[in-house]
């Protein structure tokens, strides 16, 4: 189906790299669909060039300078700038159906079957399962829907300040109307949800098809030693399962960094790949936290999974308790 596509959005350089990894992961798992990247005007030429090597279509979208209806809506609701940019995906009317995927997602197996679903299909949000998470959703491009979404934005705003609030209030029957529009959680496995229900992750996590690196700390926030296969960064900010983080960095360092190096040439750029410069991720444990501090970290989705809150430690505690 040449008129079906996977669509992502990169508003800046960091998210552009996320989009590159997402695109590569879709290609590696042999998608037969088109790949589209919407990019903000601040994404550099070298990054756009790399995106063009991976995606079938790269389109610059800028709600501030555009002459379209989003520009008028922006005047009334400047707080929703990035949201308006994301809603541009409905203007891709040369496609009959698409799957939107945030640039902080990673595909773990072929997901072309998602295009058999109808608008608006999405997985539940782990924070409030009667809302869907807008990191992965199936939609049908339509100028009419686009206009209605913009009008909805200007009249009602967003209850969470972003696109998820807008889309949930617009497609407000998702929770109750049609179970076939509820994507299984394996199509949008939230990395911060893993530690809130560990037994379920242990039971079903192996079937995951898409992992979503939710939270403030993204994969590209870390550094990586490709030789030692070690990730460095603040463990207490970590919100992702180490295996998935390693998958992301392995793909980025092997398939994306060479393309970036080619485009940047002699110009310096920070790839995030360093050799032997920083301590291994597993050793980057900070000072011991109090029980109250640990509880707060858990509630914020920031479990110290490489240390105190590792699965083995939790299992050991549970086994002791049950005995």
TrEMBL record:
One of its GO terms (cellular component) is cytoplasm. Its cofactor is Mn(2+). GO terms for molecular function: glycogenin glucosyltransferase activity; metal ion binding. The keyword Cell division does not apply. This is glycogenin glucosyltransferase. CDD domains: GT8_Glycogenin (cd02537). Its main location: cytoplasm. Keywords: Cytoplasm, Glycogen biosynthesis, Glycoprotein, Manganese, Metal-binding, Transferase. Its EC number is 2.4.1.186. The keyword Transcription does not apply. It comes from Labrus bergylta. It catalyses: [1,4-alpha-D-glucosyl](n)-L-tyrosyl-[glycogenin] + UDP-alpha-D-glucose = [1,4-alpha-D-glucosyl](n+1)-L-tyrosyl-[glycogenin] + UDP + H(+); L-tyrosyl-[glycogenin] + UDP-alpha-D-glucose = alpha-D-glucosyl-L-tyrosyl-[glycogenin] + UDP + H(+). GO terms for biological process: glycogen biosynthetic process. Signal peptide: none annotated. It comes from the Eukaryota.
